[in-house]
Design brief:
Strand 1 and strand 2 form a beta hairpin. Helix 3 runs antiparallel to helix 8, helix 5 crosses helix 6 and helix 8 runs antiparallel to helix 10. The protein is built from 10 helices and 2 strands; from the N terminus they run E-E-H-H-H-H-H-H-H-H-H-H. The protein is globular, with a radius of gyration of 22 Å. Helices cover 78% and strands 4% of the residues. It has helices at 20-49, 60-71, 77-105, 107-122, 125-136, 140-164, 168-176, 181-219, 224-233, 237-266; strands spanning 6-11, 14-19. It has 272 residues and is mainly alpha-helical.
Length: 272
Amino acid sequence: MNFVRQAMILENGIKQKQGIFGTLLGHFFSAFHTLGVICFFMGVWEFGAHFASPIILPSALEVLKRAYELLFSEQSALLISLQRVLSAIFLGFLCGVMLGTIAANFKSFAAFIKPVVNILQGIAPIVWVVLALFWFGVGGVSVVFTGFIIVLPLSFGASFISVLSLNSKLSQVCKAYKFSLLKRLKIFYLPSILPFLLSNFSIVFAMGVKVVIMAELLGASDGVGAQINDARNLLDTTQILAFVVLMVGLILLFEALVIKVLKITLLPWLER
């Protein structure tokens, strides 16, 4: 997206132009508010740790130190889990958006696929983990499959509703000119549903991280989930909370550095 595009802001009743670079700079400055809240929480945590057993509530500083060690270890479990998360989210999000868009355009297909998606969504993630273990055995395939099958219904629902909410007159114009589905996606659907997809992708990423970790805990010998299971057996609360800190940090960074930046650059009129 060209950086020449500008966002519009309203200041003292006068409409002014703010370049995308300025909007990005303002976004990064606003991130310091979140950082302040995190520091306050960590301070309260460290204070409370002095009155509890390390098994119940270890020191926040010790947890941060362990998280740093885990992050830069040679055989990082975080990288293994991140690869699985990205694979599951990419496949699930892509398939969900495609199926949702097609279902919104063809009622007969929607009548078939919506009950299937509802069934998939109604099955608890833990059940999918167990089924994946039966079908694929212990390992990365079962973990990625579980993440994929959880992400797909979320992406399907967001894309299906967003396409149905589009301007009906513009849709009629596309049909009148007999645009192909691919051309309608490019010039009509994608620009219109992009705000919904970006917001949904943020939720999907957080859900994907949690589901993959849960699947690894039960159905993998490596990755963050497997490491958490080992730490549980050893009553190593510091290790468990260190991984929690890393996962929460990953989700927050993804929201701030990927989703927010994409919204500012691709949808500057929404980020005033």
